């Protein structure tokens, strides 16, 4: 890329016109513009800016952005769901989000989803968690990740690793989209939670936990989970934390119970 102004987010500055050299999809060097003749595929940016891509660490590519994404998902064929996955990854890249972490997809679709994404050149890079592990009947159990025993946990993690997942998602609390579960309740066996972290680690995988309730947050920290997702109920009354701003992205009084996913 010729004649680019390279943005440095660390300092909040941009360079004078520079040439950016790429090799095997990676930046190999940045030189002052015009110092070295261009070779190979050349793109003249004419003084426009080049900045690092944004990352979104929590997406669900299999869902649309409509009023009732779960209903739309349940009414869709596998082919339609995979098409939605690719479309969402394409939308992300066009918005400047170059990498996303998919935090939950149907168990049966992880491999074909990765294959479809691999055939598209204009999509964000996707870090896969696969089907979330949950208690029997737990939040998002319809994605195929129910576990009862250590054997179940090991089997599912091994399967997802083989299918290309590099993270494991754990449903430590209930969620608003699954009848029979509650966001304010810690719903995962604490022994299996710790086992899941250890087993995932044995495959070189990290863990992310859906944890609304403060009790589930504490259990995940004790278990060594790598990232906490949502963490919206930080008080003893298991209601929205009175942190200025929002609850699930919407301005609400602290006394209002969240309706989280």
Characterization of this structure:
The protein is of the alpha/beta class and 261 residues long. It is built from 6 helices and 11 strands. It has a 3-stranded mixed sheet, with no helix packed on it. Strands 6-7-8 form a 3-stranded parallel sheet. α3 links the parallel β7 and β8. α5 packs across α6. The longest helix is centred in the N-terminal third of the chain and has 17 residues, at 78-94. The two termini are 42 Å apart. The model is unreliable at 242-259 (pLDDT under 50).
Quick structural summary:
Strand 7, helix 3 and strand 8 (125-128) form a beta-alpha-beta unit.
CA radius of gyration is 21 Å
**What's the order of the H and E elements?**
EEEEEEHHEHEHEHEHE
Proportion of residues in extended strands: 15-25%
- In one word, what is the shape? elongated
Tally of DSSP helical segments: 6
Secondary structure class reads alpha/beta
Strand runs, count? 11
Report the end-to-end length measured between terminal Cα atoms: 42 Å
Low-pLDDT ranges = 242-259
**What is the overall pLDDT average?**
88
Helix content: 25-40%
Strand order, biggest sheet?
2-1-5
Largest sheet: 3 strands, mixed
